[in-house]
Batch of 2 targets.
Target 1
Amino acid sequence: MKDLGISALDKLIDQLAQLPGIGRKTAQRLALFILKSDTQFASDLANAIINLKQNTHLCKRCFNIAEDDLCAICSDPTRDQHKICVVEDIVDVMAIEETHTYSGLYHVLGGVISPLAGVSPDQLHIQELIRRVQEEDIDEVLLAINPSTEGETTIIYISEQLKPFNVKLTRLASGIPIGSHLEYLDMATIGRAIQSRQELKKG
Amino acid sequence: MKDLGISALDKLIDQLAQLPGIGRKTAQRLALFILKSDTQFASDLANAIINLKQNTHLCKRCFNIAEDDLCAICSDPTRDQHKICVVEDIVDVMAIEETHTYSGLYHVLGGVISPLAGVSPDQLHIQELIRRVQEEDIDEVLLAINPSTEGETTIIYISEQLKPFNVKLTRLASGIPIGSHLEYLDMATIGRAIQSRQELKKG
């Protein structure tokens, strides 16, 4: 669609198109929706954006999103204080929390080691993780990092760094996703599932 | 993904999820992107939203988006002042402008007649269109309304209303989209293309 030469509209379209996964057509559609919505909606949306930036920051300990110095998980005394789940991003914390299968703490790296993208270990929160393992009473570090090439590199690097410490290192199991069919899965996933096959308990 | 109990984050996710085509997961991803972006980006985005609402409104004449009383198209003296292209929405103006095949004026109805959705003719800018045809020196009204059932109803309704006036009524051609294959098209489209077949000029 052609821009209509309305600078206020073009400016919002430009801004929206910078959001991830929002192409120019979607940005135009969103901007026109905002244009046609009532003023209350637009001002609520603008305020929510400003408010998020002003009232949140990263947790001092685990780099999850926080309103206070520590995030809601770090400051929750009912969580297991001896386990750290290491993830790439805050979205991964949200995804894991939804499963209700993990009750320990987190550590958000802020990415994975990627020489191609110019991300070196010192740009991630790895030193802070090592310090936590040294200083806090941690007995397990679960490396819940996405199994990409860069993820594997990151898992190996962190494992090496944590070797000197008396801490159990674990990683997420790889295998067949629940509900999927073998015929549609890639060879690497099937291969990993065979290698990691588990013995059935005999009734 | 689970909400992390951060009210500023939840509020922005709620707002973003109200945008068309933005589901909850996308809203979370966008909110986290805004969270991690620099403050400048977030404030630019918020200001662009406010600015759009404050500095634009609908054109007094054609209901396209405008910064002044009249939109950029209505106030452009080089446009053909004797043709009106009737469309449902401002996005349609943008789509048609991009083709560079139309140089007349527009009239944005603001929707189509839809008894099921409770949209009656008096909720659309049809009276204003009739007034323009009466008062302005219009010789053609192109009904560029999407060919849905409601669109057809609207085309028929407007045609009836404009019958008393000495104005040529046209509609967009229906047929085979450029670049498509017959085998993948619906019967209605192929049928229309056969009915509307055009004679080839002999060299």
Target 2
Amino acid sequence: MSDEVSSRRSRITPEREAELHGAVLDLLREVGYEALTMDAVATRTRSSKATLYRQWGSKPELVARALRCTQPVPLAEIDTGSLRGDFGLMVQYSDDAQMAKDTALLRGLAHAVHESPELHKALRDLLVEPELNGMQLMLQRAVERGEVSPDCPALEFVPHVIVGAFIALPLIEDRPVDRAFLGEFIDAVVFPALGV
Amino acid sequence: MSDEVSSRRSRITPEREAELHGAVLDLLREVGYEALTMDAVATRTRSSKATLYRQWGSKPELVARALRCTQPVPLAEIDTGSLRGDFGLMVQYSDDAQMAKDTALLRGLAHAVHESPELHKALRDLLVEPELNGMQLMLQRAVERGEVSPDCPALEFVPHVIVGAFIALPLIEDRPVDRAFLGEFIDAVVFPALGV
């Protein structure tokens, strides 16, 4: 997002923004990404299409921002002083109902991501990269504190292991990740692999 | 697959079967699952639709069997005497070009799996379950040989970690899993988590 767009967006209230994001997610669930139009978003939220384009730039960006607002807390904002604490808080902030809804939404988007490079880029820039960077910071602090060896070969694979769990569990066991699974998984796999 | 279908299928030669599976995969790549018809498969392979239905049962089953035949060796057939040896052979049998093609194919199928419970079931029964069972056997033997503690909490998550890596790497790094990644990933994450 450019600074210009950012300053434009700051003119609407957080409540109005949340309302708009909620409407986008509702429409996504109802009709899917391909059939979602800026017209429908404008009608549903009683705003003009010009406002939507001015404030969100494009449909892929609007969708990526709406998905981002379902996240309880960005990982980059978690800093408890220990890796166990950081991951523990990440698990604690996770909401079972929200994760189930997100899993269904993201599964519905898989095809659209494949078809639309713009959606792919928006999800990567606004959703995936910030969380990966947040996780990277957590791990870096753990290395600096001496909790994890800087040579630990598992360090670079932690994002793959955690992102993978979110996708593999629905595939293997036909159920979305919940807080209990996430906590057990991190205790059983991530900490031992990191030597924590 | 019922025994009856199995005995019927045994009447065609392995070469003819491989040719047919190859044609199904080509068509899948060309037109996608939804647009793939038994008519097109019959035309491409110069067989009758009746033969296809008699020998493969249905389009979802035919597609699942065709995908299965791209696997070099079923995991259940790998037994080297050690867990490191078993996973090592699994990595060694992996073919980079084939994994890249499979990743593209499976990504293309994601939408179809979501829409078709029959395809979902066929992929699960013919592709996913046999491999998960094969991995379960590998781990069970490792426990029996004393290589892994029977109480190791990572045991139940090994499939999630490995299946997850195959999906997370393309998402995070925009590239399919190759043999080098798979080997490093197993060394860095799976063995330490299992205490091997």
